[in-house]
Amino acid sequence: MSTHGRSHRLLLRLLAIFLGVGLLASGCSSDDGDDGSEGPEQPGNANVDEEGLEPQPGGEIVFGLEALTEGGWCLPEAQLAASGIQVAGALYDGLTRFNDQLEPVPYLAESFEPNETYDVWTVKLRPDIKFHNGEPLNAEAVAMNLNAFRGTETFDLLPTLFPFVLEDISDVSVVDDLTLTITTSRPWVALPSYFATGRFGISAPEQLQGDRGTCANTPIGTGPFKAVGTPWNLTGEVSVEKNDDYWRTDEAGNPLPYLDRITFRAQPDTTRRVENLTATSGGFDMTHTDSALDIEEMQALAEEGEIRLVVEDNDFAEVSYVMINSGPESDSPFADIRMRQAIAMAVDRSAVNDLINDGFNTITDSPFGPGVLGYVEDTGFPAYDPEAAQELIDEVVADNGGEPITIDMLHTPTPVTRDLAEEIITQLSAYEGIEINAGDPNQYEHLQSALINKALAGDFDLMLWRNHPGADPDTQYVWWHSTSPVNFGKITDEEVDRLLDEGRSAPPEERQQIYEDLNKRLGEQVYNIWSWYSVWTVGAKNRVHGLTTQTLPNGDAVLPVYVGVSPLWGIWVDDAE
After folding, report:
1. DSSP string, 353-406
2. What is the pTM of this model?
3. Which of 198, 298, 305, 346 is most buried, most CB within 10 Å of its CB?
C-alpha cells in the first residue's frame, strides 16, 4: 500500500528520481476481490466525444494541481511530483515521449537509434527548434543537458540522484550540429524510456549556466508554453503563455498549442478541486485526482454531462503497497522471510480496499500492471490466510525467546492515511505475538523530509507507499537493486540483482521471461505487500476539449493521463459552451 495523503504522496515523490514514488494514494478501478467475485465496474471516460469538432485557437484555462512544487524547475536538481511534472511538461520537451502503449518514440529527437549491441545510441535532433529565449536546440545544448543530469558538468548545480540513474552512461559526444552519440558502459536496451518520463526535459543553456536560484525559478525550454512573470517564486500559482515559435503543428497544419495561456493553481484538498471544477464561474477548468471517492463523484457528474472525464486504466498504473524493510543488516523483523510471509497472509487487502476506496481499486499481487513487460497473474505472492500467518508468527516468537515481535509502521497524518493505518493496525493486532508501534504521525505533518530521511536510512519496518507506474521494467532498477541509494526497502537479493542486470542488457526477445522471473521472485520473497492499482483521472469543464485526441509527431496516440499528468499542447476551449 502507499500513503493516501496528498502531502504524504508529494513527500516521497519529491525524492522520486525517475518514475515516481509516493506515500499511499487511492485510485479508482474495479476490484475482482481475492475470492474471485466480480467487484464494482471501473469508471471510465465520459462526455469526451470529439467527433466532428474543429479545434479553436485562443483562450485560457486554469489547471488545479494537487500540490505546490518546492525547489523549482531546474530539472537536473528538481524533485518533481505529478504537479511539478505537469507544469514542466508545458515548458519543456524531452528527447522521447511515451505513446499510449508506453513505448518511447522520438520527440525532440528525430531518431534515437542503437547500434547492434545497444551500447552506443545515435540521437539525431529535429532541425529549426528554438528555446524560448531564441537559443537554437542543437547537439551541444542537448549534450550539456545530459551531462548536467549526470553531474559531469561544472555548473553551479548539485544533482544528487540523477547521476546514479544515468550511471551507465559513460560518454556523451557531439557528432555535428544536430547529432550526438550516447555511449553506455554496458548494453542498455531501455535507455530511450528514461528520457520520456517528463523529468528529463531539455533546458536552454542559459538556464543551466545561471546560478542555482536563477536556474530553479527561470525555466527556459522548447515546450509549447513559456513561463510568465519569471522569476517564479514558491507561490500557489504560476502561469504560462503560448510559445508562438513552437515547432509542432496539428495534422491539419495548424500551429500548436491552441491555448493562449494556462494558470496552474495548487489546491491540495482534492474535494475542493472537484468543487472548483463544477463552479459556475471561476474555479478550475481542468484538474487531476487519484482519490477513489472523488473519481466516483466526478464520474457521476460526467455521465450527467456536467463535466468531461478521462480515467487512467490499470495497464500502466502505479501500485499502492506496504513497503517492507527487509534489509539483513537492519533491526527490522522483516529481514526474516517468515515474518514477511506472515504479514502478507495476515492482512485482508480486500477489506482494506473496501474501507479506504469503497472497493473500487483492483487488488494486485505484483508491482507491474497488466500492460507491462513481465506481468504475470500468479507471482507466488501469499494469499490471505490468518491461520498460517499465526503459525509463522508463533515460530518467530519462539525463536525470539518468547518475546513478542515489535513492528514500527510509519505514515503521514492525513485523515485517509490515518484510516488506512488504523485498519491495518486493527487487523495485525488480532494476532498474538505482534506489537505495533505506529508512533505519532503528527510529527511529520510540517516536516515531510523526516519521512524521506527515514526511508533513505531504512529507519522503519513498514511504511505506507506508492510507486512503480508502468513503463519498461528496467526503469524500476533503482528501486530494487542492492547497490541503489533509493532501494528504500533494503532488498538484498543476488537473484533480484542478477535479473535486473540481465534485463537491462539482454536482447529484446529475452526480456519478457527475465522480468516474469523478477516479478515472481519479488512475489515469492514478499519484499512488499502489494495492495492495489492506484489510478488517476483528469476532469474538465465542458468548454475544454482535446482530452483524448492528442497525438505525437509520428501520429501515435498519447495517453490522456499518465500518473496524474496530461499533455496540454492539443487542449482547446469553446467559450460558447
Report:
1. HHHHHTT-SPB-SSSS-TTSTT--S---PPPP-HHHHHHHHHHHHHHTTTPPEE
2. 0.89
3. 298
